[in-house]
Amino acid sequence: MFAVIFGSPGCPYCARAKALAEKLTEERDDFNFRYVDIHAEGISKADLEKETVPQIFLDQKHIGGCIDFEAYAKDNLGLFAAQ
To answer: What are phi and psi for residue 59, nearest 5 degrees?
Structure first.
């Protein structure tokens, strides 16, 4: 499974989603991710699925934000996601 997290500096939910992805990468052989800093990459919030960050995609499927990612990890990846 490959996750792409679109986030921005200073966003606590972005940091939380990235920390969860790092934990999943450490604990699972089948998980990897890329964190995309939308400011550094020149991506506007309007370019994303929703105009909030983080926006998270798993295997190119839009999952949602941080809370959605945590719920998905808990329900499907055997990890209690609360940080």
So the answer is: 50, 45
| Contact criterion met (CB below 8 Å) for 28 and 77 | yes
What are the average pLDDT values for consecutive 10-residue runs of the chain, which has 83 residues? Answer: 95 97 94 96 83 93 96 85 45
* Omega before 12 within 30 of 0, i.e. cis: no
Nearest to 37 by CA among 66, 3, 8, 14: 8
Domain ranges of the chain: 2-76
Q: Specify the pTM.
A: 0.89
CATH 3.40.30.10 correct for 2-76: yes
